[in-house]
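Minutes, project check-in

Agenda point 3 was the complex the collaborators sent over. CS summarized: two entities, 450 residues total, and the question is how they sit relative to each other. Sequences were read into the notes so everyone works from the same version.
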Amino acid sequence: MQVTMIVNDVEVTREIEGRLLLVHFLRDTLSLTGTHWGCDTSNCGTCVVWLDGEPVKSCTVLAAMADGHEVRTVEGLAKGGELDPIQEGFMQCHGLQCGFCTPGMMMTCRALLDKNPDPTDAEIREAISGQICRCTGYSTIVRSVRWASVHEAAAAVNQ
Amino acid sequence: MQVPAPFEYERATSVDQAIGLLERLGNSARLVAGGHSLLPMMKLRLANFEYLIDINPLHAELGYIRFEADEVRIGAMTRHRELLESDELAAAFPIFRDAERVIADPVVRNRGTLGGSLCQADPSEDLSAVCTTLDASCVIRGPGGAERVVGMEEFHVGPYETAVGDGEMLIEVRLPVRKQGGSAYEKVERRAGDWAVVSAGAAVWLAPDGTIADARVGLAAVGPNTTGIPEISAALWGNTPAEELYEQAGAIAARSCDPATDQRGSEDYKRHLADELTRRTLRKAVERARS
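CS then shared the predicted structure for the full assembly.
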C-alpha cells in the first residue's frame, strides 16, 4: 500500500507493507535513525516521536496509521541549524550518558514544555514515566528540562 | 525484531462503513483502535488476522464525553488522555481520574482508547473494573445500524472475549448518574505503569439520611472476569457508613474473588489486596459522596 505523510515538514510518499511499524518506516525506509528502537513492547519509550504533535511510541503504531498525518522526529527538533532549547539543556546539564534513551526523552519533554512551559520536577518525572534511562540519569534529565524551561522563559522576556 | 504476521490494512471512514467491512470479512478481520494491546499481541503472534481495520479516523465521530440529565455517554474512541483530563468527568466520577492516572504511562495514554480497553477484555484491565463499578452499559452497533445495549456482566464473556459479535462494534459506553454519589479506584502494581497485581473500584450513593442507598465494588486481576460482587452491595444497602462495614465488605471481596498465583503475587497476597483495596476505595468513595 502507498502512504503519504509529512515527516519533519517534508512530504514523503512510499510503498509499504501494512504490517510495517512506524519506527521501522522512519529508521529503515526514510533512514531517519535518530529515532531509536528499543524494547519493542511500548515500555522503554526510546522510539517516541510525535504524531500530529502528540508523543507516541512508534514501535506500537503502524506506519499506515500515520498516512495523511504529520510526524516529527528528533531530527526535526533543531530549527535552521539552531538547537532546540531542550537539546541545548541536555547538553548543558549532562542529560545524556550513553544517549540511547535521549531522542525519546527529548521528544516527550519538548511536548511537555509546549503544553506546560514551567513544569515542576514532579510533572517532568510524570511526563517521562513511560520512558527508561538505563544509565539511570533521571536527575540530570529533569535538570535539563528545567534548564530549557528557564531559558525559554528568559528568551521570551528578552524578545 | 518483533513484527506482526502479514495482514491487509483497511482504513475505516465511518462507523457504518467499518461495520460493513467487518460483516463482509467475518472473523478474519479485527478492528484496531489505539493498538497498544492488540499490536503487541500481534507482534508475539498470539493474535493473527487477515485484515486489520484501523478505526483511528473515527476519533472525530466516536471521541466524546457527553453529559446528559441522567447519564454520561462516552464514545468508544475517547482516548485515555481525554478521560484523564476531563474535569467534568472527574467531578461526576472521580474513579475515572484515579484509574487513568495509573493506566500505563502518559505517552501510551495518548493512543489507548476506552473502547479498545473494554474490547481487549483483559482480566487485569483497569477501565473494565471502573465500568463494572459504575454499572456501565455498552452500546454495540451491528449491520444496518441496529444497536443493542448490554450491561458489563453480559459484555464480558470471558478473558479476551466480549459480547461484541462478528460484524458488530462497540460504539459507546453509558454511565448512569445518580444523586449524592462518590467513587474511587486503587491499584497495586509492581512498578509504575504495569498491569495491576490487584485493583479495586468502589462507588457509593447515599440516601438523604446518610445511609448507603447503593454501593458497588469492581475488582481487576483476581479472576477471569472483572464482574461486580453483588454480595457486597447487599451487605452495604441501608447501612450507615462505618469502618466495620468496610471490613465486612473487604472480607466478602477476599473470599468472592478467584485469583491465581503468578509472577505478580501469590493467591493469598492477592486476596489480602482485594480485602484492603475494597476497604480503602469504599472509605474514599463515601468521603467523596459526602463532600
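Noted in discussion: The helical segments of chain A are 22-29, 85-92, 102-115, 121-127, 138-158.
Follow-up: revisit at the next meeting once the mutant set is ready.
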